[in-house]
Amino acid sequence: MNHKNETILLAHGSGGKVMYELIHDIIAPATGMKVFNDSATIDLGAFEGHTIAFTTDSYVVSPIFFPGGDIGKLAVFGTVNDLAMVGAEPRCLSTGFIIEEGFPISDFIKVLESIREASEEAGVRIVTGDTKVVNKGKGDGIFINTSGIGLVREGINISPSNIKIDDRIIVSGTIGNHGVAVMAERNGLSFSPPVVSDTRPLNGILAKILDRYGTEIHALRDPTRGGLATTLKEMAIESSLCIEIYEEALPVNPQVAGACEILGIDPLYVANEGIFVAFVNGNVAESIIDILHGHPYGRDARIIGKVLDTPSEKVLLRTRLGGTRLVEMLPGEQLPRIC
Amino acid sequence: MNHKNETILLAHGSGGKVMYELIHDIIAPATGMKVFNDSATIDLGAFEGHTIAFTTDSYVVSPIFFPGGDIGKLAVFGTVNDLAMVGAEPRCLSTGFIIEEGFPISDFIKVLESIREASEEAGVRIVTGDTKVVNKGKGDGIFINTSGIGLVREGINISPSNIKIDDRIIVSGTIGNHGVAVMAERNGLSFSPPVVSDTRPLNGILAKILDRYGTEIHALRDPTRGGLATTLKEMAIESSLCIEIYEEALPVNPQVAGACEILGIDPLYVANEGIFVAFVNGNVAESIIDILHGHPYGRDARIIGKVLDTPSEKVLLRTRLGGTRLVEMLPGEQLPRIC
After folding, report:
1. Do B226 and A40 touch (CB under 8 A)?
2. Which end of chain A, N or C, is more open, meaning fewer C-beta atoms within 10 Å of its C-beta?
3. What is the value of pTM for the model shown?
4. Is the predicted ipTM greater than 0.90, yes or no?
5. Packing angle, helices B71-84 and B203-213, rounded to 10
């Protein structure tokens, strides 16, 4: 049966025969998943750590296809990365689709194939799922929720409350790529060379540094919505310490810097999908940078600042001109539906 | 700060300051949840079984408030029930909100309070969450994804492939209540006494029979979208056996039967949210019924049929008049967005 020229119908979410066929004829073959029960059972037999990580994210990015990625990749990698940020090895994901009536099945298949590729790259299995269909005009193509389970490494303690004075702050790559790539696609802008999203999984690169320096890595976070600025401000609040960063150390791709200048936005507030911020013991910061530079996703890693005692809960930006500016959270909305 | 007369803005999904305030000022107080990290870490220390259950569902019910429940209760109990159907004790849930710009914050608070009450009733903790906002006209008020983790009891094997010839089929309550209640609300119909949704958690009542007869209970499922008919047909296919049910044994509330007659729909195809179907060893079927009758959610439990060898993958309905009719899955769509 060829569904490629068809569109999603309300009946595809009925729970009945048409939904059964969608799952068996489209979702299962495109993703390579076996058809699953409503609940998956997962054997943690070889797992001695007793602590699992659990996360959820819904993805509503618009447009769903953009340079460097699409909503399927984003949904897999975004959730994988949230698990990685608490020091967990991501294992299983769920996928929940909310599809608008009239959505082309050919686009759905592209998204499903992208989910398969992404889960293979990240080394996770999709084990359970759900499909709902809403009336035309009550959704926007497709929204995807992915939730995930990971196994937390033993002997590590990754949390903003674990940040210490004199910790060095590392960012694993250039900032602002994802937000600028989506915004460019949305507004028909083009750059040469093009700006592509950094949508990618961070569990592999993190494993390299956690395996070696697990106890020296105090906190991790991926600066997605709200950008690096908002993430750092949250971490200053949660640690009750002061974060000092150096403008000249911030890695920004020149096309992204140019686009931000034209558009009057600050790359510190633009969303990322494939970088992390790490707060690490100053003694090992340079060694960690060396490891990161040896991984394709860490070539632009930099030490961007350090942790001070006071002023508590503040983020200070030391500017290129020698001044200091307070960094606050993103105040309003800059780029809606960036992820 | 009083947000009660306000509506959701795109900035509430920005990842920045306005979202931070929504989480701290609205979501945390209304739900009693602590404000969480992107990923929760869950200690399974006391858990010796090694097998967890994992499930996901998105809820897009329209309208979001209906007799007997609302989208918040549905989101908690629906996911709790999916975990219970594989013999797991539900433990943790995630909540992912996709909110349409302009949605009243007062309604959001009602839904959050409902989530809190429901999770207390079901004995689960909400441990992680996510909030996205989509532009006005690109959603429909609020959609909620809940994913859940449970711990599978040791020594049981609940699966359609475990269904055996001569198993008795038990349904735990009257069928069709949820679908008719939502449809009535949607269409401004009223019944006296009113038909209310059966939205409720099934883990407590199931624990009663699993604790006593765990190994005699071969398969479980909650007949939601597609109704009891679709669920039985799926189980006939998955077990490669034949399911025989008796029309006169099917428990249907008289108001629901009347509504279905007027509307020309068959209660066998109407969605339920608070009943389960169990395939059990014939020797203990009556004892299980006795236990169910002692629980408030099982007063209308009945043996509705049994399992035969052939014709394989078929569901046979023995009618009141002595005839036999083949029961198929719900063919098209009957009541869109029922859950």
Report:
1. no
2. N
3. 0.96
4. yes
5. 10
